[in-house]
C-alpha cells in the first residue's frame, strides 16, 4: 500500500478550504476589495512567481543566467512564500524531470502515471526519486542554498503567511491579508505551476517535436512565461521559455532588463537547430 506525505495533504487541504472560505466571504460582502487590495495581490503574486519561475526554475535548476548575490538572496528569501519546498529539493526533482521525462520511476511528476498524478498526486505520495549520483552537487556545496533548505519551514511560514497578514494589516484589511494574500495566492500559484506538469504535458501544443511537453498561452500568463513548456524541454538551459519575441514570457523580459541594470549576467541562449540536430542524432 502506498504511503503519503501527510504534511502536504494537510497543507493542500488547508489552503483549499481557506481559499473557499475567503471566496465565500468575498461574494457575500464579508471581505471588501478595492484597487489597493487588487494591486497588493498582483505585486505579491508576481514577485513570488518571479522567485520561483526565474529563481528556482531558470536559475537554480537550469543555471540559465547568473544573478548578483542580492538577487540570489531575494530568490532564496521569497521563494519559500510559494510553499513549494526549498530551492535544493525543487531543483533536484526538476532536474530528474528533464533527465528522464515520462519515466515512471525517475521522473517525479511523470505524465505516464496520468493527469492527476502529474498534477498533484506526486506531491502527496511519499515516493521520492533516487539515483546513485546526486543531480544537485553544485547546489549542495552552496552555503546559502543549504541555509534555505535547513530553515525552509520557518521561512515558508514567515514569508508565505506572516508577511501577507502583515501586508493585510498595513492596507487596513487583515481578512484580505490572511485569506487572499496568504492562502488563495498560494492555492492559485500551486495549481498554476502544477498545470505545467499535467495540462502542458498532456494537452499542450507541440510545434517542433512529438514529445509530451507542450506549450500553453494561458498557463504562460499564470506562470510568467513558463507555460511555453514545449520550447523549454527542447532548450532547457535557455533563459527564455517563450522563444519568439511575442511569446508571453515576462521572466525573459525582466531578466533582459536586469542584465542592463547589471543585476544578472551570462544570459544563456541555445540554438534550436542544434538541439533538433542533437536529438535527431540520438534517436
Ligand atoms: Zn516538463
Ligand atoms: Zn525546467
Would you kindly provide a written description of the structure presented here, covering whatever features stand out?
By secondary structure, this protein is mainly alpha-helical. The chain has one domain. It is built from 13 helices and two strands. The protein has a two-stranded antiparallel sheet with strand order 1-2. The protein starts with 5 loop residues before the first helix and ends with a helix. The mean pLDDT is 94. The site of one zinc ion (ZN) has 5 residues, from helix 11.
Give short descriptive properties of this protein:
single chain; 283 residues; mainly alpha; two-stranded antiparallel ribbon; 13 helices; binds zinc ion
Mean pLDDT: 94
User: Can you summarize the main beta sheet?
Assistant: 2 strands, antiparallel
- The total beta strand count reads 2
Domains, number: 1
Write down the Rg: 19 Å
Enumerate how many helices there are, as a single number. 13
Give the SSE string.
HHEHHHHHHHHHHEH
The helix content, as a percent range, equals 55-70%
The separation of the N and C termini measures 37 Å
Strand content: under 5%
Strand order of the largest sheet: 1-2
